[in-house]
Amino acid sequence: MRVLAGKVAELPEGSQVAVEVSGVSVVVVNFEGQYYALRNNCSHKDYPLLGGDVSMGRISCEKHGAKFELSTGKAKVLPAVKAVQIYRTELDGDEVYVLPL
Ligand code: FES
């Protein structure tokens, strides 16, 4: 079941928003014109990824600096070693949706 993340106009490049997908918080990121969605929870400790710095296709956890690849959810920088769950994004007209993979 897909969930509306927002209108394209509300999600410009560099923006982030968190939405609930089946009771799980998911962060949606517009990075270089592509939408990515990951579980909004660092795999190191219980900390949200929303608002973390995004660069080189990775989102940082602001708590201890781990970085996760937007396209795969893989942990690329310690102290996180486990991946975070990724979700699918879908563009439908001028709306962005998130759905489980
Ligand atoms: S809680 Fe994210 S790096 Fe520690």
Automatic annotation (TrEMBL):
Keyword presence, Protein transport: no
Every Rieske domain range: 3-98
Keyword Disulfide bond: no
Keywords in alphabetical order: 2Fe-2S, Dioxygenase, Iron, Iron-sulfur, Metal-binding, Oxidoreductase
InterPro entries according to UniProt: Rieske_2Fe-2S, Rieske_2Fe-2S_sf
GO molecular function annotation: 2 iron, 2 sulfur cluster binding; dioxygenase activity; metal ion binding
PANTHER family xref list: 3-PHENYLPROPIONATE_CINNAMIC ACID DIOXYGENASE FERREDOXIN SUBUNIT, FERREDOXIN-RELATED
Name of the protein this chain belongs to: Ferredoxin subunit of nitrite reductase and ring-hydroxylating dioxygenase
Organism of derivation: Deinococcus peraridilitoris (strain DSM 19664 / LMG 22246 / CIP 109416 / KR-200)
